[in-house]
Design goal:
The chain is mainly β. The protein has 2 domains: 36 residues; 112 residues, Sandwich (Immunoglobulin-like), CATH 2.60.40. Helix content is 2%, strand content 56%.
Length: 160
């Protein structure tokens, strides 16, 4: 008997289809389908921002993303990375990255990090004066999701 396995990763679930063809009679064939749903865990990322204090006149906020073994920042789908929450509240639509990204070791801890940027002019209207927690999330190239939260302080806005 032949067994065919097809896996589809949707970002939240891993869907597996197993097909086992078999013959009932000379002219009739049937297929057995087994569907398994496995909820994928969200990969926790370490997220740091620079500068840690935001002033409205600055142009970009840099974000550094690190993943723990066995995950690698090289496997992040950069086109899916976005700022998705401010102070625990979802941003609709999420704030996309701005400009080029690069891989390095910003904090010199021997673990590669992915540097991305966000336009501060897009951030200022949704931040409060004082400390803010910012959540960045996205997908890995295999469809799994990652998420991490860091903090920044804001001075000099009209918001409270």
């Amino acid at each position: 008997m032949k067994v065919f396995l097809i896996k589809i990763i949707t970002g939240v679930f891993l869907i597996s289809f197993m097909f086992s063809p078999f013959v009932w009679a000379a002219e009739t064939a049937g297929i057995t389908v087994t569907v398994t749903l496995v909820q994928l865990e969200i990969i926790e990322a370490t997220v740091e921002f620079g500068p840690e204090i935001i002033r409205p006149r600055q142009r970009f906020l840099r974000c550094y993303i690190e993943l723990t073994e066995p995950f690698k920042v090289e496997d992040i789908d950069i086109n899916t990375v976005a700022l998705t929450e401010v102070n625990g509240d979802a941003i609709e639509p999420p704030l996309a990255t701005a400009g080029p990204s690069k891989i390095g070791d910003y904090d010199r801890d021997g673990v590669a990090d992915l540097q991305i940027r966000f336009n501060i002019s897009s951030l200022i209207p949704i931040l409060e004066t004082g400390e803010n927690s910012l959540t960045v999330s996205g997908n890995m190239v295999d469809g799994r999701k990652f998420k991490g939260t860091g903090t920044v302080s804001v001075i000099g806005t009209n918001r409270r």
